Amino acid sequence: MTGLDLAAVIADPTIKIIICCGSGGVGKTTTSAALAVRAAESGRRVVVLTIDPARRLAQSLGVEQLDNTPRPVSGIDTAAGGSLDAMMLDMKRTFDEVVADHATPDKAEAIFANPFYQALSTSFSGTQEYMAMEKLGQLSAQADEDGRWDLIVVDTPPSRSALDFLDAPEHLARLLDGKFLRLLLSPAKGPFRLMGVGFTLVYSAMEKVLGAQVITDVKTFAAAFETLFGGFRARAQDTLALLGSQRTTFVVVATPEPDALREASFFVDRLTESGLPLSGLVVNRTHGSELEISAERALALAEDLQTASRGKRQSGHRVEIAALQRHADRMRLIERERRLLARFSGSRPDVATWSVPDQPGDVTDLEALRLLGSALVDQH
């Protein structure tokens, strides 16, 4: 097992995108924010994008509200020439921007008013992940064009859906460019005309199940959206190519718990199978002790003190006994964490890993983010 050198990652000018992924409740959002703050105060021009709908990122950065527009974070030390902007993905607004940018005004207006589009842009499975890809592509293009940023930090949604954005472009493109919509759009053209009466029967059955208005809405949407089909797939392929390039790196975040490390293993394996660049694994909230006393020895000492106190009305060793028992509990926890991390490293020895000690209190402001950034970067 090698140590993960995040100082080198954020200092590398060739790395333009850092994507943090992991299951829920492992400190992924605060890790993303801490890396962004550290990079900005080290001289990078950073924008941090959260796809997680929770608003913890805004709270920890001291920003009143985050939305789909990058906004500067105040309180950042800019002495090294860096800066920090922050934003939170608004999938409907991003979808609207894509339509407005790539359709004529008349077609855009028709798409916006269509009930099927309204459902697709707000609640359809995979839309959030696809729009995350669109937004990441937009930010990268803007960074290349005007140099406003030289590093994009992405905080992904919790759980395994954090990597769904790798598949979402293909899923959505398959829907928008699929035979079903083409069939609704032009049922009498091409090979579909061969279906004849069979298609008519299927179509009638669909109308009964879904309702004639739903089918009409989908057909109207398909007609207005037809010219945009190819663009979605092309941009998704460009962004996937960007994710697989040397400009991007992934950081998996976990805690020393069985479920979190199991999810981390899934992320690591998926990234490796997809040929995507992985920097390594950050393990948050690990524990240590300055006392070199094993749990067994601490309990034995506590038992000796209890034996010495028997028969006395008041024990002069209550504090010492309680302290030794708490120390024994902590040492058991430390040993458990070590076993879990050793098991992970044993099955994936090539994955660089870095353990971050449990932080005192919640990470809710810039100073706490700086302390977390130091724990992530400075202990090499």
UniProtKB/TrEMBL annotation:
Pfam family, one: ArsA_ATPase
Classification lineage: Bacteria, Bacillati, Actinomycetota, Actinomycetes, Propionibacteriales
InterPro entries xrefs: ArsA/GET3_ATPase-like, ATPase_ArsA/GET3, P-loop_NTPase
Domain of life: Bacteria
The name this protein goes by in its record: Anion transporter
SUPFAM superfamilies (alphabetical): P-loop containing nucleoside triphosphate hydrolases
Single GO MF annotation: ATP binding
Domain ArsA/GET3 Anion-transporting ATPase-like: 16-286
UniProt cross-references to PANTHER family, sorted A to Z: ANION TRANSPORTER ATPASE-RELATED, ARSENICAL PUMP-DRIVING ATPASE ARSENITE-TRANSLOCATING ATPASE
